[in-house]
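In this supplementary section we document a worked example of the pipeline. Step one takes a protein sequence of length 73 as its only input; no multiple sequence alignment statistics are reported here. Step two produces a three-dimensional model, which step three serialises into structure tokens for compact storage. The input and output of this example are shown verbatim.
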Amino acid sequence: MRKTLNVDADLLAQAREMSHARTDTEAIHLGLRQLVTHIASQEIRSLGGSEQGAMDTPRRRPPEFSSGDECPS
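The serialised model returned by step three reads:
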């Protein structure tokens, strides 16, 4: 899709240089993808701890399975 945008030339040049983008279009695409990812992660983070009665998930195997035995499903 083609759009006409008013973009700060210095900011675009800096973004292109820092991102190693080959074109202005590539720099803008990279920036938009990063913005969308950042906002999505903020939204997910804001949900943290909101489930009432949630139980902690164990992060390590119980000691009885530390010898390499298969953990039961």
